[in-house]
Amino acid sequence: MTPMIDIVFQLLVFFIMTFKIVSLEGDFNIKMPLAAPSEGLPDEDKLPPMKVRLKASSSGDLAQISLNDNNFGVNFDSLHNYIISIIGDERGPGSVQETAEVELDCDYNLKYDGVIRAVTAVSGFVDDDGNIVKLVEKIKFAQPRPAGG
Fold it and tell me: What is the full DSSP assignment across 21-69?
């Protein structure tokens, strides 16, 4: 019995020492909606919140993506490129990227895949060198609404 317990502890130590957390997983600063949202005046130096509307078809598939007044059909690449054009290349303290905020307004019956692809499109990407380029770190969700509402 003692050798078996010894092996279990050795395996436990091995898996703890070799465990690596992938930085792309769970690297979102997401705020869930509050019961009573409060509206205030935004700071003048901050980028106004971008509202991404995700409309679902009756089957729950993504039917339309829109950001403020721009419609992107169901093309997440167009949304991603538009976010890059707004944020720009500047990174670091005081940059637009640091103050940018996106609110995802999703239909209630939208499938999970559409929501995650939208979060991925606005939050960042991995460049050709394997570095993580963050775009928008502040992502929040609006109250869910029924399809077509």
Answer: --TTTT--EEEPPPSS----PPPTTSPPPEEEEEEE-TTSSEEEEEETT
For residue 86 the two structure tokens come to 């707004």
Under 8 Å between Cβ of 100 and 135: yes
> For the segment 28-64, what is each residue's pLDDT rounded down to a tens digit?
666 666 665 555 655 555 667 788 888 888 888 888 8
Grouping H, G, I as helix, E, B as strand and the rest as coil, residue 103 is: strand
Integer CA distances (angstroms), 46 to 20, 28, 75, 95, 122, in order: 36, 20, 27, 9, 17
Q: Answer for the pair 106, 141: CB distance below 8 angstroms, yes or no.
A: yes
Nearest to 114 by CA among 101, 129, 104: 104
Whole-model pTM: value is 0.62
> What distance in Å separates the CA atoms of residue 144 and residue 10, rounded to the nearest whole number?
48
Residue showing tokens 């935004």: 42
30: left (phi over 0), alpha (psi -120 to 50) or beta: beta
